[in-house]
Amino acid sequence: MAEKSSRTSPAEFLRQVQNETKKVVWPTRQETITTAIFVGIMMVILSMFFLGVDSVFGSIVNWLLSLA
Both ends of the chain: CA-CA distance in Å? Predict the structure, then answer.
């Protein structure tokens, strides 16, 4: 029979989680604001890009359907 692997007790698990959360480096307020602005700008740029692509493909499909 295979031997069971040792299990971590709930108290030990919580200690390990606590030690790991101490290692987390949270972003500063300025980093958060900068990232949020960048995400907003990229969202606007990509939405305009996909609107343009969708319009072009929509026009092509309408033109193809008008041929039939």
Answer: 73
